[in-house]
Description:
The chain contains twelve helices and 17 strands. By secondary structure, the chain is an alpha/beta fold. The chain has a four-stranded mixed beta sheet, sandwiched between helices. Strands 4-3-2-17 form a four-stranded mixed beta sheet, covered by helices on one side. Strands 8-9-10 form a three-stranded mixed beta sheet. It is globular, with a radius of gyration of 19 Å. The relative contact order is 0.18. 6-aminohexanamide binds next to helix 3.
Amino acid sequence: MTATHKSTPAEDGFRMPGEFEPHSGCWMAWPERPDNWRLGAKPAQEAYAAVAVAIAASEPVTMAVSDGQFENCRALLPPEVRVVEVSTDDAWIRDHGPTFLLDGEGGRRGVDWRFNAWGGRNSGLYFPWDRDERVAAKVLEVEGAGRYRAPIVLEGGAIHVDGEGTVLTTEECLLNPNRNPELSKEQIERVLLDYLGAEKVVWLGAGVFEDETDGHVDNLACFARPGVVLLTWTEDEEDPQHAISRDARERLEAATDARGRGFEVVLLPSPGPLLISAEEAEGVDAAEGTQPRRAGDRMAASYVNFYLGHSRVVYPLLDPRHDEEAAGILRRAFPEREVVGVPAREVLLGGGNVHCITQQVPQG
Ligand code: KQY
C-alpha cells in the first residue's frame, strides 16, 4: 500500500511539473454512462480509443474501466494500451484523477483533491460521485506513488502550472461558491501553492462561454512553456467569448510569473460556435440530476483543450474551418513535437475535450 502523507507537497520538496516536461505515461478513463454519452456511449468510446491510440505513440497509456465494460474496452483498444479495472462515475480523469508531483530526486507522488462533480448537489453535473472520489487514490496505488489528500474541492482541469512556480486558474471556477464556499481567495491560493509546490497564482476571470465546469482554465488557456501561454480567441465582438478572451489576454499581459517574467500570449482560434444537433440531443438518455443535452445549445469548444504528450501534441478536430489553422499554431508552439488531430466532437458533446479525458504521469 502506498503512503498517505500528512505533510504538504511544498514542505516535502514536491512540485507539479509543467505538462511540457517529460512524461512516463498517461491515464484515461472509459466512457459508458448513457445519460451523458449518446447512443450508449458507443461513438464516445470510438473517440476515446482514437485519443488513446494517438497518445500511445508518444507514451504508455493506461485506460481505467469498470468491470462491466472491461471486455468491450479491451476489444476496442490495441494491445499496447493497458486496461485496468477502476470504477468511475464518468470518464474525466483530468478532474477525478490525481495531480502528479515530482521532487527532483526521482520521487513521484500525487495530490488527491476533493471532488464534488463540478458543483455538488445543487449545481453539479451528476450524483452520486463516490466512485469518482476514489479514483485518484486507486491510480496512485497502481503507480506506487505516495498520496497527499488535499483539503479543498478542485478538479485537475481547473489548474495549469509552468513547473517553475506559477499556477494559472480562473476565478469563475475556483471562487465559485459551489466548490469551497468557506474559503477566501487568499486561503484557496495558499492551498494551491502548498499542494502544487508553487509560489504564485495568476488569476484569469471567466472560462470559455457555456463551459459546464464553471470555467476550467484548461479549456481557456495553457502554458506552452514557462512564459508562453496559449489562449482561445475569437475576433467576433458579437460573440460573448470575445470579451472573456480579451479580459484573459489583458490580465496575462499585465501579469508576471513566479520568476518575474511577463507572458507572451499566443492566440488559438475558437472553433464554431458549435451547437448540439437534434439527432445528437435525442441520443442521450434523460436522467434526473444530470446535465441536459438540448438541441441548439452551444458547446464549450476550444482547441486549447489538447494533450501535451511526451513527443506528441494530440489536439481535438472540431471544426474544418479552423482545424488546420489551429494545427499550424500548435506546430509553431511545439516545433519539437508531432501535432496530431483526433476527431473530438463526441468528446465535446459530453462536456469536455482531449485534455479533460487525460492525465499525464511525469517522469520521476
Ligand atoms: O473537465 C471537463 N471538461 C469535464 C466535464 C464534465 C462533464 C460531465 N458531463
